[in-house]
Design brief:
The complex is a heterodimer of chains A (231) and B (584). Chain A is an alpha+beta fold. Chain A contains eight helices and seven strands; from the N terminus they run E-E-H-E-E-E-E-E-H-H-H-H-H-H-H. Chain A folds into two domains: 2-99, Ubiquitin-like (UB roll); 102-230, Fumarate Reductase Iron-sulfur Protein, Chain B, domain 2, CATH 1.10.1060.10. Chain A is 31% helix and 13% strand. With 584 residues, chain B is of the alpha/beta class. In chain B, strand 21 (551-556) and strand 22 form a beta hairpin. The chains are: A alpha+beta (231), B alpha/beta (584).
Chain lengths: 231, 584
């Protein structure tokens, strides 16, 4: 199979370049990660992140033929050749397919992603109805792979000021949690022309999410909560 | 060499490390976590089915029954004091996670959802219990993210993508921190700490067919072996019965807990023959052996007869969508079947290391010394899969791993606080403390004819073929011979890539060194134990032999020495559970 891989080693390369690679591999039943690791077995200078190889750890997000995807759950036979693999867009490249994730993590931390409940803790669990718990479905499953945030033009232009879809989805995860008491503070934290309202609803994030989550819908709910509390 | 100083250092950012770090971060001490991946990439994230605690939310339950099941599940090799401690603490540990925000699934009355798992009983071996607390089939993800979030809230200092190299110790044996390397820059770093916790996880990548993440390379075990400390019970590896055939990705036991079952090529529910009472919810070792036998005797499914079917379509779309959504995803992606319509092809896959770094129930690493077989190594702790406390004995029960992480993570964190109070001043670091680590790094600057990736592949094939579900003297010996050849090849290996920045080839070389140590410990320990117990099945010694083997194995690298220490049969407060025949 034919691949075009983004290569950049800051110690030896003046600038990034695309490398054509041919790999002898039977694509049936294989994922893109299998192919990248087979290429790395031949040429160990190729650098990429990977861990669980089953789509739950979020390490190996890359841009494949123009779309952000997790290499480990992207079936090889589906991909059009030459398969072009680049690092996630919008973040500084450290090497080859590896980006500096810190701007993404910083926005995640900025929404204070932890449950706040200052009431004395009961001896057992806090109760939550199945209906209340169902509000978290589609929000808590985020794996922080950054596929969504780095597919968002608003984040490309404003990585310092726009929280981005992943961070906003996590903000919603806590707003929606019946056990969390900090909704007002969380909304205050987002009521800002940049932090929340840079989202223009173009839904690139929804298309990019490898877990089938819908950050745009969550952002919409946050916006409507802000509208509601104003009236 | 750059140096950083902390009061406490945690090596590993999975569930165990983060739970311990949280305990320390809530104090005024300075705590750092070193992790070779961003913490939420740790393998805890892959845990599916749940965390076991006798909450009795669905059915009668008591921690004493959980304790009995754990002792029996471990084929009486587990230490009963540690098991009592874990089962007693289980409920509070789970409630605490709920208070931190873990999004558990819920029952109609609003309490935490629980499901049946293998090896769970009421009344000390009676009817099936319902004890495993779950967040759908993503419990590990929910747990790991919750603990990471709490650590952010408490401002734990993270060294993400730093690879720990070696323990720093002084002449009196005190652990004074570790040497590490920034993966991003390739710079070595010395991290001094008055107390250090290893929470580096398992080493399941030592087998060819494994459910484990690619990062599970036994790094803490390698560090301990190089420090001259022993590893315990390394012959005991759990092969999970239901990995996706040919891929290894896990299909949770929760599938069988929800009512799924196994079929052979004749459409027979064969577990009824092997475990008439518990059937598909017998211990994992029992089910894995049964599948291996079905396949070996020609009753496997498919063209090559190399798997069995896991049927769950009768559970209905709704249950699958609500309780097993992640499984459905995995099966569609990796097996090409929608389990709501068709059975999933499964086969045993290497899953969990029961053995590890010997500790007591405070998480203190213990080693034989002048005053007995279990002297704490001052300042050094270990928790989670890399540790052997030993609560899982010869075979771990499903749902007990996440519990182990949080119960002993918390216990170790609390004990480290005591240690810091008792040892208020940092001990001086000996001159040249980092020399061995720097020599290891320098060794990989040299060129060599052998490739790391090829040796790693061969190692995993050797371990699969020679130390798998069934073991026998001649095959194990043959495996040791082949391992010797691989060690020679490793000595002649070199890197094509000697750059500094994010050189993952260098990391893989260092990981291979750790895996090699794990492989040797496993083969030598397995060869030594001439009985069958739990997950260690010797075809040439098919019976459990309590008279000679009711004891832990201690393996030391120096001369491949194997020692033993007694199993603690005396619990903390309750009556001892005496060994008897283990049937399900």
């Amino acid at each position: 199979m034919k691949f075009r891989l983004h290569r950049y080693n800051p110690e030896t390369d003046a600038k990034p370049f695309m490398q054509d690679v041919e790999l002898d591999i039977d694509p049936a039943g294989k994922m893109l990660l299998d192919a990248l690791l087979a290429i790395k077995a031949q040429d160990e200078t190729l650098s990429l992140r990977r861990s669980c190889r089953e789509g739950v750890c979020g390490s190996d997000a890359v841009n494949v033929n123009g779309k952000n995807r997790l290499a480990c759950i992207t079936p090889l036979p589906e991909l059009k050749e030459p398969i072009e693999v680049r690092p996630l867009p919008g973040l500084p490249v450290i090497r080859d397919l590896i980006v500096d994730m810190e701007p993404f993590y910083k926005q995640y931390r900025s929404i204070k992603p932890w449950l706040v409940n200052d009431a004395p803790e009961p001896e057992v669990e806090r109760l939550q109805s199945p209906a209340d718990r169902a509000l978290l479905d589609g929000a808590y499953e985020c794996i922080l792979c950054a596929c969504c945030t780095t597919s968002c033009p608003s984040f490309w232009w404003n990585p310092d000021t726009f929280v981005g879809p992943a961070g906003l989805l996590q903000a919603y995860r806590f707003i929606a949690d019946s056990r969390d008491e900090a909704t007002a503070a969380r909304l205050d934290n987002l009521e800002d022309p940049y932090r929340l309202y840079r989202c223009r609803g173009i839904m690139s994030c929804v298309e990019a999410c490898p877990k089938g989550l819908n950050p745009t819908a969550a952002i919409g709910r946050i916006k409507s909560l802000l509208v509601k509390r104003r009236v | 060499m750059n140096t950083r100083r902390f009061d406490a250092l945690i090596v590993g950012g999975g569930g165990a490390g983060l739970r311990a770090a949280l305990q320390l971060a809530r104090s005024d001490y300075k705590v750092a976590v070193v992790s070779k991946v961003f913490p939420t990439r740790s393998h805890t994230v892959s845990a599916q089915g749940g965390i076991t605690a006798a909450l009795a939310n669905v059915d009668d339950d008591r921690w004493e029954w959980h304790m009995y099941d754990t002792v029996k599940g471990g084929d009486w090799l587990g230490d009963q004091d540690a098991i009592e401690f874990m089962c007693r603490e289980a409920a509070s540990a789970v409630y605490e996670l709920e208070h931190m925000g873990l999004p558990f699934s819920r029952l109609d009355n609003g309490k935490i959802y629980q499901r049946p798992f293998g090896g769970q009983s009421k009344n000390f071996g009676g009817d099936q219990a319902t004890r495993t607390c779950a967040a759908a089939d993503r419990t590990g993800h929910a747990l790991l993210h919750t603990l990471y979030q709490q650590n952010i809230a408490h401002r734990t200092q993270f060294f993400d993508e730093y690879f720990a190299l070696d323990l720093l110790r002084d002449a009196e044996g005190y652990c004074l921190g570790v040497t590490a390397m920034s993966i991003e820059t390739g710079e070595p770093l010395l991290i001094e700490a008055r107390t250090t916790l290893l929470a580096t996880g398992g080493a399941g990548r030592v087998f060819w067919n494994s459910s484990n993440a690619m990062i599970n390379t036994g790094d803490g075990l390698g560090m301990v072996l190089r420090a001259g400390l022993p590893l315990q019970d390394m012959e005991f590896w759990q092969f999970h019965p239901t990995g996706i055939a040919g891929v290894g990705c896990l299909i949770t036991e929760g599938v069988r807990g929800e009512g799924g079952y196994l079929l052979n090529r004749n459409g027979e529910r064969f577990m009824e023959r092997y475990a008439p009472h518990a059937k598909d919810l017998a211990g994992r070792d029992v089910v894995a052996r049964a599948i291996a036998i079905e396949i070996a005797e020609g009753r496997g499914c498919g063209a090559r007869g190399d798997y069995v079917d896991l049927k769950l379509d009768h559970l209905g779309e709704k249950t699958i969508a609500e309780k097993l959504p992640g499984i459905r995803d995995l099966a569609i992606r990796f097996a090409g079947v929608d389990p709501a319509e068709k059975a999933i092809p499964v086969a045993p896959t290497a899953h969990y290391m029961m053995g590890g770094i010997p500790t007591n129930l405070h998480g203190q690493v213990v080693a034989p010394a002048r005053f007995g077989p279990e002297e704490p190594v001052p300042g050094l702790y270990a928790v989670g899969e890399c540790a052997c406390v030993s609560v899982h004995g010869a075979n771990r029960l499903g749902g007990n791993s996440l519990l182990d992480l949080v119960v002993f993570g918390r216990a170790a964190g609390m004990h480290m606080l005591e240690y810091l109070r008792d040892n208020p001043y940092a001990r001086p670091l000996p001159d040249h403390a980092a020399e061995a680590s720097l020599a290891r790094l320098a060794r990989w600057e040299q060129s060599g004819s052998e490739r790391v990736a090829a040796i790693t592949d061969d190692l995993r094939r050797v371990m699969q073929a020679h130390a798998g579900v069934f073991r026998i003297d001649a095959v194990l010996r043959d495996g040791l011979g082949k391992l010797g050849e691989l060690e020679t090849r490793l000595a002649h290996a070199g890197l094509q890539d000697t750059s500094r920045v994010f050189n993952t080839a260098r990391i893989e070389a260092l990981e291979l060194e750790n895996l090699m140590g794990v492989a040797r410990a496993t083969l030598v320990s397995a060869l030594n134990r001439t009985e069958s117990r739990g997950a260690h099945t010797r075809e040439d010694f098919p019976q459990r032999d309590d008279e000679h083997w009711l004891k832990h194995t201690l393996y030391s690298r120096e001369g491949d020495q194997v020692d033993a220490k007694p199993v603690r049969l005396k619990p903390l407060t309750v009556e001892s559970i005496r060994p008897k025949e283990r049937v399900y």
